[in-house]
Amino acid sequence: MMSCTLFNIQASDPIDFVSHPKNEQGQGNRVPALLPTADYEDNIINVYVPYDIENMQIVIKDEQGGEIFSVLIPSVSIQYSIILSEDESADKHSIELYFNGWHLTGYF
Q1: Domain count, the chain
Q2: pLDDT tens-place values along the chain, 108 residues long
Q3: How far is CA 89 from CA 20, 34, 84, 86, in A?
Q4: Which residues form the domain of 82?
């Protein structure tokens, strides 16, 4: 499992992701994969992608692991923003991205 810090200069709170690579047997590439990044400011989560991604699922969970937000996006290009309601924002804890066999988890 590799960990990477992801940030955007304009945002105040980057979200750190732990990635679960496509190859679960531990045999990774020598060159790090280009992975999405995300940040959080006020009630807005921005997910940035380094290339077009089809069928990306985003799941936000509360501290108990309960799902409070989920969306399947047919196509993401450059950025996808999620505006959380006050109720969702108060209970947020983690964000998970699923795409192309990848599973990224970030905590905020």
Answers
A1: 1
A2: 433 333 344 445 888 888 776 555 444 555 557 899 999 988 899 999 999 999 999 999 988 899 999 999 999 999 999 998 887 777 778 999 999 999 999 998
A3: 25, 28, 6, 5
A4: 2-6+13-24+33-107
